[in-house]
Amino acid sequence: MALDAPVERRDEVQIAMGNGNGVAPSQPSRPAGRPTAAAAAAPYADRRLRLNPNADHKPEDYSDVRGEYAPAVYSALERHLPPSLIDADRDVKLHFMRDILARYWPQGERNKVQRHREYRQRILHLYKPLHEELYNMHPSVFFLPTFLEAVRSNTEECFRSIMTEPIPGVYSFAMLQPTFCEMLLEEVENFEKWVHAMKFKIMRPNTMNKYGAVLDDFGLEAMLNQFMEQFIAPISKVLYPEVGGGTLDSHHAFIVEYGKDRDVELGFHVDDSEVTLNVCLGKQFFGGELYFRGIRCENHVNSETQHEEMYDYTHIPGWAVLHHGRHRHGARATSSGLRINLLLWCRSSVFREMKKYQKDFPSWCGECQREKRERQSQCVKATKMAFLRGSGGAAI
């Protein structure tokens, strides 16, 4: 089973600690005058990260820090700082953590991110948008009134009033205005023609799709970040709290294209997201149904599907399907026409960090829960058998 991955993975840095400790590289000698963050951090260069996080420590706010890592990465890593450094100035801690991250993030990955950043900057400098109004959030132009009213009410009752839930964790609802769908389709087509004319190499959405485009690459990142924060996060906070639905802080947004001269179908896989929004933009098509086969953790991603987990979803232009990123799914062949969908992979760096320390079975994995119920059943049976044997012995 394939695991989709985005082109850029700046919010998923894995900190390799070996035996649980990472050592910061040596710092330059302290210059005269006011000490820099590098100089101030030098006395701590031989300190090791804590194996277990300091649960009682409240990390600094790094929301203003820009760069290769999401702010939540620094907040999470700060809990692992050595006791001698944890109460130091924020700049000192930030410098120390950046050194740690730079040391354990492979140079090849850093180069890849840098190349993608340069590619994106070049496009943003040269590409002239077709529909300028797409690049700023206009809720009444983008969304249907029923969807807007539900989000503004911000209650589970209102969310569920506009949705259907055919199987647990999969929600379908009318979302986008037809004019927005048309504008976005025209913008993507315009961008693809421009890329071809400029002889650029277009970055595809992931390893499984050979057609489509990453929307963030040509200027829609800020608008789509608002899209996630203001309209998806409130719903996810209510419907997906167990996977960080209330702490979504980054996204990967892209268009996929299916048809006779495009990708025809999509294999069985899970998404690199906590929550996935999939909206059909059009055009005219037959086939292309999504099939769902149960939510699974990493340990059970290839386990069998239970009958009650099977569901096929038929796309309708303007309608969205919202689901858990680890919900196994695929797309059947689009037999005719052209189907184009907007995908928004929503992620939580906090959830991903905390997941590393999870000791119990995930409450959201269908197979984990099935195994848990089976163990409980076996335990009850064993207890009954022991009781019966004890009762029989007493009677004799």
TrEMBL record:
<keyword id="KW-0479">Metal-binding</keyword>
<keyword id="KW-0408">Iron</keyword>
<keyword id="KW-0223">Dioxygenase</keyword>
<keyword id="KW-0847">Vitamin C</keyword>
<feature type="compositionally biased region" description="Basic and acidic residues">
    <location>
        <begin position="1"/>
        <end position="13"/>
    </location>
</feature>
<keyword id="KW-0560">Oxidoreductase</keyword>
<feature type="compositionally biased region" description="Low complexity">
    <location>
        <begin position="29"/>
        <end position="44"/>
    </location>
</feature>
<feature type="region of interest" description="Disordered">
    <location>
        <begin position="1"/>
        <end position="45"/>
    </location>
</feature>
<protein>
    <recommendedName>
        <fullName>Fe2OG dioxygenase domain-containing protein</fullName>
    </recommendedName>
</protein>
<dbReference type="GO" id="GO:0031418">
    <property type="term" value="F:L-ascorbic acid binding"/>
</dbReference>
<dbReference type="GO" id="GO:0051213">
    <property type="term" value="F:dioxygenase activity"/>
</dbReference>
<feature type="domain" description="Fe2OG dioxygenase">
    <location>
        <begin position="249"/>
        <end position="348"/>
    </location>
</feature>
<dbReference type="GO" id="GO:0005506">
    <property type="term" value="F:iron ion binding"/>
</dbReference>
<dbReference type="Pfam" id="PF25238">
    <property type="entry name" value="OGFOD2-like"/>
</dbReference>
<dbReference type="InterPro" id="IPR006620">
    <property type="entry name" value="Pro_4_hyd_alph"/>
</dbReference>
<dbReference type="InterPro" id="IPR005123">
    <property type="entry name" value="Oxoglu/Fe-dep_dioxygenase_dom"/>
</dbReference>
<dbReference type="GO" id="GO:0016705">
    <property type="term" value="F:oxidoreductase activity, acting on paired donors, with incorporation or reduction of molecular oxygen"/>
</dbReference>
